[in-house]
Specification:
The protein is of the alpha/beta class and 133 residues long. It has one domain. The protein has a 4-stranded parallel sheet with strand order 1-2-3-4. Helix 2 links the parallel strand 1 and strand 2. The chain is elongated.
């Protein structure tokens, strides 16, 4: 019985060691939220330079600020972008409005790597329902 338990633990340890050595921990990527509320902040081109310098591959912005999108052109940084709460009612009003928003804010920046579009930020459901639905 003691020998069987001993072999079980050795086998389990061996399997765990093999599992952990085969995992690719470098595949995890760091992303940073790039907020623009504040004084003395660097300009978007400098922010993109800093992302590249520190090998940060993902960025989240809360709106589609054109200078930021311009700075991201060709940067290979994966971008998560938000639709502002104040834009939700207009974008949700019709398919044409949604298409226009996508054309203006996404498709016009063909060499920006958009990863995700976030709809709203900390939306208040009761207020949103009154305006949209």
């Amino acid at each position: 019985m003691a020998i069987t338990t001993h072999y079980f633990f050795l086998t389990a340890m061996f399997i765990l060691i093999i599992m952990f050595t085969s995992l690719d921990f470098t595949a995890a990527q760091i992303g940073v939220c790039y907020g623009r509320n504040g004084a003395g902040l660097p300009l978007p081109p400098r922010v993109v330079e800093l992302f590249k310098q520190y090998n940060i591959k993902r960025m989240r912005i809360y709106d589609t600020y054109a200078p930021t999108l311009e700075a991201l052109r060709g940067s290979d940084i994966e971008l998560t972008v938000g639709i502002l709460n104040m834009q939700l009612e207009e974008v949700a009003a019709s398919q044409a409005n949604a298409d226009r928003w996508v054309q203006t804010n996404i498709r016009n920046y063909g060499n920006v790597r958009f990863r995700t579009i976030i709809v709203g930020n900390e939306c208040h459901v009761a207020k949103t329902r009154k305006r949209i639905g």
